[in-house]
């Protein structure tokens, strides 16, 4: 790896130099092992500690299949799917790998291993490309989005998220980004934003693309100027990008957070309408089976107080069971609840009278297609949306980084250095960086 790192850090190497570098036979990756899948049996979700299941170990470098690329990973990031994989909830990810392997071909078959190298974000440099790759070549500085598709069925050709062989790389596939090397499909690659460091450019891909499809794209809510957008977890991964996308698109985000520090963070991004759910102590559930519509009304009244009497056009939903009833209630007539997750539980309950009588829509959404991910990355590269990196850990401490996200001790995004020997490297456009430095650093040292 030393030679690869030196070549990248030299800054002057060209495609031929990279192509001449030998590919290491093994690399270090953050992984879970199949034999550990039952280790948390009987424990409550919050008591499952990712530090026990996540290991950083050396594994053999996989072969490259047609249309794939091998990337030297400089930095990666923790996503909530890293948490799900590490606590084997809602299911162990080894079932995904086994199914992928059965789908056919040697490139797919090699994903079924007794270990799963995790990670759905990366920044780095292309080392090799497989047969048929024309657009990318060794030496390209890239980030990767996490949509892996086969596109052999007609179903995925209008929107690649609808491909029956659609998978989230590093969650439903092996050889993810929390590692020194990663295998991606070449159509996951996008240019690394020139004004950002390796760790800053690695942290946005998954959440920014998801929030972009969820809020902005016509495949999601199709948010427009002036819309009131309720953003749950506005200082978290998805929410910190959703807040920026709402502000950037001329909407009015109503940002829900759980502490004064997080309230200050979202205000620093330009949000003016903020609800501290802890301070205001909303209890949408009287007991585990019964919701309290009085609390929905109190929450709705607070939103009206902030907006000058207006209700919500769009809700960015992801907490799930705990908040979904309230989200449906506070949405305006004809408005949209757009959901991509169920962190607090996936069996939702809501009062359907408020949905049908008020002609509201619930829209399901999931990650983003390549075009949406590209558009979201372009906003980062132009300095219109900024990374919300709050903390950075070395690869060896990926378990601790993941435990912080699991315990909601973090804000924004938590980054991981892979081959990058230190923070602050990889910036190519210093002028653009200088212009946006305060915004790029907004979330640093907040956890
Ligand atoms: P995150 O960084 O942990 O942020 C989530 C935020 O939600 C937290 O900061 C927290 O903010 C808030 N929250 C947590 N529990 C809550 C509750 N019970 N009620 C209200 N707010 C709550 O995670 P993330 O990256 O944003 O991901 C959030 C969820 O979306 C995860 O389940 C993840 O797997 C999912 N996701 C899905 C996709 C997809 O493509 N389908 C993509 C990305 C993420 P406060 O404590 O400040 O309120």
- Largest sheet, strands/sense/barrel: 7 strands, mixed
Estimate percent helicity.
25-40%
Low-confidence stretches: none
Main CATH class of the largest domain = Alpha Beta
Strand content: 15-25%
How many angstroms separate the termini? 31 Å
Oligomer category: single chain
Mean of pLDDT: 96
β-strand number: 20
- What is the second-level CATH architecture of the largest domain? Alpha-Beta Complex
**Individual helix count:** 16
Instruction: From the alpha carbons, calculate the radius of gyration and give it in angstroms.
Output: 21 Å
Number of domains: 2
Say which molecules are bound, naming each kind only once.
NADP nicotinamide-adenine-dinucleotide phosphate
Shape: globular
CATH superfamily of the largest domain: Medium-chain alcohol dehydrogenases, catalytic domain
Q: Determine the structural class based on helices, strands and strand pairing.
A: alpha/beta
State the CATH topology of the largest domain.
Answer: Quinone Oxidoreductase, Chain A, domain 1
Please provide a written account of the structure:
- This protein has 447 residues and is of the alpha/beta class.
- It folds into 2 domains: 263 residues, Medium-chain alcohol dehydrogenases, catalytic domain (Quinone Oxidoreductase, Chain A, domain 1, Alpha-Beta Complex); 146 residues, Rossmann fold, CATH 3.40.50.
- Helix content is 31%, strand content 23%.
- It has 16 helices and 20 strands.
- The strands form 5 sheets. Strands 3, 5, 6, 9, 10, 19 and 20 form a 7-stranded mixed beta sheet that branches. Strands 13-12-11-16-17-18 form a 6-stranded parallel beta sheet, sandwiched between helices.
- Helix 9 links the parallel strand 11 and strand 12.
- The two termini are 31 Å apart.
- The relative contact order is 0.15.
- The model has no long low-confidence stretch (mean pLDDT 96).
């Amino acid at each position: 790896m030393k030679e690869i790192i030196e070549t990248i850090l030299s800054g002057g190497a060209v495609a031929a130099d990279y192509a001449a570098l030998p590919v290491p036979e093994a690399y270090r990756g953050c992984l879970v092992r199949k034999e550990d899948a039952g280790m948390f049996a009987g424990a409550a979700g919050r008591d499952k500690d990712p530090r026990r299941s996540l290991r950083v170990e050396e594994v053999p470098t996989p072969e490259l299949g047609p249309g794939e690329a091998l990337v030297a990973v400089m930095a990666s990031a923790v996503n909530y799917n890293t948490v799900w994989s590490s606590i084997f909830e809602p299911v162990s990810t080894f079932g995904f790998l086994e199914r992928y392997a059965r789908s056919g071909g040697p490139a797919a078959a090699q994903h079924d291993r007794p270990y799963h190298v995790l990670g759905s974000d990366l920044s780095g440099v292309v080392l090799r490309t497989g047969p048929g790759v024309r657009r990318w070549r060794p030496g390209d500085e890239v980030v990767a989005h996490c949509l892996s598709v086969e596109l052999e069925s007609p179903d995925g050709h209008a929107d690649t998220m609808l491909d029956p062989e659609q998978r989230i790389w590093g969650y439903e596939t092996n050889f993810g980004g929390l590692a020194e090397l990663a295998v991606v499909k070449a159509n996951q690659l996008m240019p690394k934003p020139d004004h950002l460091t390796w760790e800053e450019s690695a942290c946005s891909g998954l959440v920014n693309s998801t929030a972009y499809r969820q809020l902005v794209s016509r495949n999601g809510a199709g948010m427009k100027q002036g819309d009131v957008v309720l953003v749950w977890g506005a200082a978290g991964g998805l929410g910190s990008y959703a807040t920026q996308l709402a502000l950037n698109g001329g909407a009015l985000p109503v940002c829900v957070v759980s502490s004064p520090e997080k309230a200050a963070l979202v205000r620093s991004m330009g949000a003016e309408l903020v609800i501290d759910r802890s301070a205001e102590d909303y209890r949408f559930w009287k007991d585990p089976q019964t919701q309290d519509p009085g609390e929905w009304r109190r929450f709705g009244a607070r939103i009206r107080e902030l907006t000058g009497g207006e209700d919500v056009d769009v809700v960015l939903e992801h907490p799930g069971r705990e908040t979904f009833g309230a989200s449906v209630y506070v949405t305006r007539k004809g408005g949209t609840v757009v959901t991509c997750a169920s962190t607090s539980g996936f069996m939702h309950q809501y009062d359907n009278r408020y949905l049908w009588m008020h002609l509201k829509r619930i829209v399901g959404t999931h990650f983003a297609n390549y075009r949406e991910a590209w558009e979201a990355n372009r906003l980062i590269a132009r300095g219109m949306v900024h990374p919300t990196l709050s903390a950075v850990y070395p690869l060896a401490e990926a378990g601790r980084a993941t435990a912080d996200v699991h315990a909601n001790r973090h804000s924004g995004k938590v980054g991981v250095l892979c081959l990058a020997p230190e923070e602050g490297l990889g910036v190519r456009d210093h002028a653009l960086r200088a212009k946006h430095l305060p915004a790029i650093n907004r979330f640093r040292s907040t956890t």
